[in-house]
Amino acid sequence: MEENKKKDGSDKALAAAGTLLVWIPMAFAVLTSVMGTIATGRFLFDYLMPAELFPAALAGALLLLWAAKRSGRRFRIIGISFVAMLFFMGSIIVIPSVTGLANGETSPEGIPLIVVMVCLAIYMIFLIAVGIGGIRLWRDLLRNKN
Questions:
Q1: Which residues touch 124 (CB under 8 Å, ≥6 apart)?
Q2: Rounded distance, CA 75 to CA 64, Å?
């Protein structure tokens, strides 16, 4: 029984830390947007920030996967969203290199840019899905009264 309480407590800590790390990229993008908009009087939004802060999202998603696997809860949604998030992050790294966007051979316009921007948007959708999965996992663990 004591071991289950320790396991439950560490699952909660993993879920909380993972959820916070996953939401950092989106939260910083929104926070800097609000601060920049107030400072300049024009709407500003760094839509690349969630991709730039990918290491934090990756660390958080791995913690969430670990917590979900240990607790037996929300593993499927977190796992599927995590794999999709990785795929689309890889796409926004590989596609510009292959098409010449990364080194300037191709001008940043047209189909190659549209494909990269769509992949970035889908990456952010799955990043949010992992974050929502983390919130739901943490909520489930907090409600657990075993």
A1: 26, 50
A2: 8
- DSSP H or E stretch at residue 62: helix 54-71
For residue 105, the 8-state DSSP code is S
Alpha-carbon span 55 to 67, nearest angstrom = 18
The percentage of residues in the chain with a pLDDT greater than 90, rounded to a whole number, is 76
Which residues 6+ apart lie within 8 Å of 122 measured at CB? Answer: 84, 88
Please report, in angstroms and rounded to a whole number, the separation of the first and last CA atoms in the chain.
9
Convert the pLDDT of each residue in 41-61 to its tens digit: 999 999 999 999 999 999 999
Q: Would you state the torsion angle of the CA atoms of residues 49, 52, 54, 55, taken in this order, to the nearest 10 degrees?
A: -130
